[in-house]
């Protein structure tokens, strides 16, 4: 298992940066539910060994129980954090890439501590944002603060989908979290999409057309 470390943040601290935000998003691929981005800032005076011992990893490599545990630890140990939720209707309106960039921007703007450097998972920085930035592919696997952001984003989104499962129990959202699993696809074929499905995504668009536009739940 790849273990993220604090070396990238330390190099930036040594260059004079003090408010370094790690940023990641969760939920680009699902067929239903929102996209969530998180931003996390750790103090340059934090005890690095204590942070690393927490066991923070890319959220995809952790169990649900471990993510919930780490969520509380990250919130306790970090200097500041925020999450941003972009609903499915906005994703349909502006597309998933623009929704991702919007979510990251809103997460950063919601921080009380204003960052002076952004470490972002992926290939894109935030356009026209007046702060030094670096986008790093797979940063959630290698860079501590980005891994921490991935945990906050994942736990937040999972909690939302568990709540939505209560409203739309026929789809099994609590189990698959909106991803296109076999169980989810079978439910879609039987019931048609509901209001939280992303209508601009190909599989949902095709099912809507098959239902002649009448398959959206209230």
List the helices and strands and how they pair.
Blueprint: H1 7-14, E1 20-26, E2 35-41, H2 48-53, H3 64-77, E3 80-86, H4 88-94, H5 96-109, E4 117-121, E5 132-136, H6 139-142, H7 144-167, H8 173-176, H9 182-191, H10 202-210
Parallel strand pairs: 1-4, 4-5
Antiparallel strand pairs: 1-2, 2-3
Can you give a write-up of this model?
It is a single chain. With 218 residues, the protein is an alpha/beta fold. The chain folds into two domains: 160 residues, Nucleotidyltransferase, domain 5 (2-Layer Sandwich), CATH 3.30.420; 43 residues, no CATH class. The chain has ten helices and five strands, in the order αββααβααββααααα. The chain has a five-stranded mixed beta sheet with strand order 3-2-1-4-5, sandwiched between helices. Strand 1 and strand 2 form a beta hairpin. Helix 3 crosses helix 7 and helix 4 packs across helix 5. The longest helix has 24 residues. The N and C termini lie far apart (43 Å). The model has no long low-confidence stretch (mean pLDDT 93).
